[in-house]
Amino acid sequence: xxxxxxxxxxxxxxxxxxxxxxxxxxxxxxxxxxxxxxxxxxxxxxxxxxxxxxxxxxxxxxxxxxxxxxxxxxxxxxxxxxxxxxxxxxxxxxxxxxxxxxxxxxxxxxxxxxxxxxxxxxxxxxxxxxxxxxxxxxxxxxxxxxxxxxxxxxxxxxxxxxxxxxxxxxxxxxxxxxxxxxxxxxxxxxxxxxxxxxxxxxxxxxxxxxxxxxxxxxxxxxxxxxxxxxxxxxxxxxxxxxxxxxxxxxxxxxxxxxxxxxxxxxxxxxxxxxxxxxxxxxxxxxxxxxxxxxxxxxxxxxxxxxxxxxxxxxxxxxxxxxxxxxxxxxxxxxxxxxxxxxxxxxxxxxxxxxxxxxxxxxxxxxxxxxxxxxxxxxxxxxxxxxxxxxxxxxxxxxxxxxxxxxx
Length: 407
Hints:
- It contains eleven helices and 21 strands.
- By secondary structure, the protein is an alpha/beta fold.
């Protein structure tokens, strides 16, 4: 039994990087055939975008903006050049955001994640993600079938009927949320039903703490987690090394300072931004609003792609202070105006029954005038007054937070 899905997973990182970036100009050209991308990327010469540095100079497209964009120019906000009929399936997610499924095999790039979790050709898989309008069920269904598995399209809920399916088909694999896996195992134990055929699982869509992972293992199920979205499919996944998540092939993943498109320093927490290389439906620097950090070095499992720590919270920390919104990009702008500062964190509290905010800023050395200068910039950028506290380098946590609402 091979340990890897294919040779792409173990190639030299420089070879992978060169291959991805070589495809980028043509994908950009295809993207700019769509009116919204043509407008967003106006003035961009696709031929010149052949490095991560050049890619980082392009604007980000925020997932949080998609509902309004899709409503203004249905169904895809002008970001897809082809007609809806050119796709295989058409979905909607809360927002609403409208997502098309491509006609190619494994359109959501999930077969690798299932393989890394131990799924193999000929396995029977119980898929409990929803098949109703949203793409979740179809993401894992198509991925399992691309791997050569047979899929039980169970969907969530109705444990009694799930037990009948499990006892009849004896699936070895489970895909769904970790919460529903626990519900299923607990209900089976209570009802005296046999679900012992399930030996491995790929879970997503909810937190999967170490404690729950260990509980699943104690009950005979080796469960791995994957990180994905309805827009992009499977973005990163756990492997047998259990060291963070390996980024999927065919994607360019960046980690940027929240509220900006600027890459973070190696190891720092930031927002996930993804560029996909599907010319039929490309995503160019889609900012997901999720936080993570890159892990150094290669995985012990032999896969050589970038690794991330996994989901570490939300990047959208927008909060309202004295009736006005304060956004992460505003705090990032203060940092740009004062490059001598390191990490920044705006702490919002209550003082005397009124909102109050303090900008904590790392600084190696603090000239006498710097505190008042930063306070003036804080007021100019946010239109709100606040105090500034200069702290030593390394004093603030590396968690990607620019705004901490402690009210």
